[in-house]
Amino acid sequence: MNTSPGRRQFLRQSSAAALGLTLLPGFTRKVAPSDRLRVAHIGVNGMGTNHLKWFAALPEVETVALCDLDETHLAKAKSTLLELKPDAKVDTYGDFRKLLERKDIDAITCATPDHWHAQVAILAFEAGKDVYGEKPLSYSVKEGQQMLKSQRKHDKIFQLGTQIHAGDNYHRVVELIRAGAIGNVHTVRLWKLGTPPILGAPQYREPPDTLNWDYWLGPAPYSPYSPERCHFTYRYFLDYSGGVFQDFWCHIADVVWWALDPQDLTSVSARGQAMTGGGNTPQWIDVDYQFDNLKIHWTTAPPDVPGAAGHSIGAYFEGDKGTLLCDYGNREITINGVVMKDIDSVPITLTRSPGHQQNFVDAVKARTQPESNLEYARKMTLPMHLGLISWRLGRPLRWNARREKFRGDREANHLLSRNYRKEWDWI
């Protein structure tokens, strides 16, 4: 990282000062090139394109490098950036390790498939870079543990790409729950309506000349190339992801962990059916979690509770004084049969976000962790991994929260991690 006096002053200034410059919509200011945060994007298709656009819109950020294993995605991303920033000077890479060797890059964003998230982040920490990593945090429980250990060792900043976390609605739900508006919460019901696409049998063939398929697989088990296994639909194969459940868990579980910080998970019990066709992630999955004094139920269909049927995704908090139903942008509080959108007497206690990406930039400058930091994100996503393990084994599992191990179940504990292909094990 460039450590000239002006740059050090920029990176150390308080986050509060930065917020004052970013709250007004459309507000822009000139920032000296030497004082900009230099960012590189790894994985630039799909959500990676959003990363590129979001960070390019921040005056404090300069995009200096792009990386992707598909040359067509890389060319498209560079073209998109130059449309937004005609004067941008950006280098492109097919190997993210080469990008990480650059001393002038301060931070990276990662929007690769799930099975690469941990290695990209850990190698970035080791190279002195801060990380904005797309969800889910990691492919496995062990990877999340390794990520947190590395981040602490190298004292780096991490933000999980749960963009919905920045919205006002989640902030307000957290304030209401923490204030005891519906009393002591004993049960939460989460759901995401939706099933995976019908992929059909994989059509194995030679990979396109523009795609480095062996590198794309990386630490995952080897498979011949098929379009169904690659790019967006990779998430419906357990070698790389966990389907709709893994894709959406953190979007809605986020508000629960933020509001309640569930402690001491003791058991996990999942039911479901594998998808038909070429993939093997859940067609549907229901999971029951028992925490200390709290039950959490995940269902694929909306639960049979008032108001849930109208929401394709949601959280339903049940307290001893009332209930609260919410999705990304809406909430309904019910107390003694009266339905309301808010409770004026509950004060605003949480600082509102300047935007999820701006929150990361501010955190990098202030050297403090952002809202969706790695320690928090790991706690919030760990139960998702455990639910998938219970589903894969077809039986309930008992969990030791202190040791982060299943009780008396070697087969289940084996699924907390996996061996990487030897030549792709870089951590």
Describe the protein in words:
- This protein is an alpha/beta fold.
- The chain folds into 2 domains: 5-165 and 355-374, 3-Layer(aba) Sandwich (Rossmann fold); 167-351 and 379-424, Dihydrodipicolinate Reductase, domain 2, CATH 3.30.360.
- Helix content is 32%, strand content 20%.
- It is built from 13 helices and 16 strands.
- The strands form 2 sheets. The chain has a 10-stranded mixed sheet with strand order 14-13-12-11-7-10-9-8-15-16.
- Strand 11 and strand 12 form a beta hairpin.
- Helix 8 (168-178) crosses helix 10 and helix 10 packs across helix 12.
- It is globular, with a radius of gyration of 22 Å.
- The two termini are 23 Å apart.
Major sheet details: 10 strands, mixed
Q: Give me the CATH architecture of the largest domain, please.
A: 2-Layer Sandwich
Taken in chain order, the helices and strands follow as: HHEHEHEHEHEHEHEHHEEEEEEEHHEEH
By helix and strand content, what is the structural category?
alpha/beta
Low-confidence stretches: 1-28
What is the average per-residue confidence, as pLDDT, rounded to a whole number? 93
Beginning-to-end CA distance, first to last residue = 23 Å
CATH C-level of the largest domain: Alpha Beta
Structural domains: how many: 2
CA-based gyration radius: 22 Å
**What shape does the CA trace take?**
globular
Strand content: 15-25%
Which fold name fills CATH's third level, the topology of the largest domain?
Answer: Dihydrodipicolinate Reductase, domain 2
How helical, in percent, are the residues? 25-40%
CATH superfamily membership of the largest domain, which one?
Dihydrodipicolinate Reductase, domain 2
Biggest sheet, spatial arrangement of strands: 14-13-12-11-7-10-9-8-15-16
